[in-house]
Amino acid sequence: MLLKEICTPDVVHCTRDTTVLEAARLMRTKHIGDLVVVDDPEEDRVPVGIVTDRDIVVEALGNGLDPATTTVGRIMHSPVVIARESEDTAQAIERMRAHGVRRVPVVGHRGELIGIITLDDLLKKLAADANALMDIVAKEQTQEHRARR
Predict the structure, then answer these.
(1) What is the CA radius of gyration of the chain?
(2) Do residues 85 and 2 make contact, with C-beta atoms less than 8 angstroms apart?
(3) Which residue, 7, 6, 2, is CA-closest to 105?
(4) pLDDT in tens, 99-109
């Protein structure tokens, strides 16, 4: 399945100049664990980094940085691992494994942010596919049982 078909399209983003405190509040308000960092929030929104709730705790708070004055640009992961909308889920899984990341922004053909794919998204898709396969097995067994009466 192509990433553009299963990625989350409403990506919450911020700029490098967003403070860690503002980022944390945005994550809390939106009930999310990451923000995609972009330099051009009003234009193409090309991803330049990603910051997670864990980054805020480990990199900012854990190092005694003031969240009201420390910017996301100081603690974000960059360069950011991205995926293209035309890639399939197997490619995204391999990229996540190779880079040890749980979240990957998805970009269009011009590099513009169009969504995000997470480990949770992929696990849900895998679970749904496994359930569909189990339904096939159950249906086959039912048909076989009926045929042998």
Answers:
(1) 20
(2) yes
(3) 7
(4) 999 999 999 99
| 77: three-class secondary structure by DSSP | strand
Q: Of 114, 116, 110, nearest to 81 (Cα)?
A: 116
Instruction: Tell me the three state secondary structure of residue 22.
Output: helix
35 — phi, psi (to 5°)?
-130, 135
Q: Read off the pLDDT of residues 27-53 as tens digits, 9 standing for 90 and up.
A: 999 999 999 999 987 888 999 999 999
What's the pTM value of the predicted model, to 2 decimals? 0.84
Asked if pLDDT for residue 145 goes beyond 80, the answer is no
Per CATH, domain 3-117 is 3.10.580.10: yes
Distance between CA atoms of residues 104 and 49, nearest Å? 10
Name the pairing type of β-strands 103-107 and 34-38. unpaired
Banded model confidence at residue 90, pLDDT cuts 50, 70, 90: very high
CA 70 vs CA 17, 18, 139: distances in Å: 9, 8, 58
Which amino acid does the sequence have at 108?
G
Domain boundaries, the chain: 3-117
For range 82-89, the mean pLDDT: 95
54: three-class secondary structure by DSSP = helix
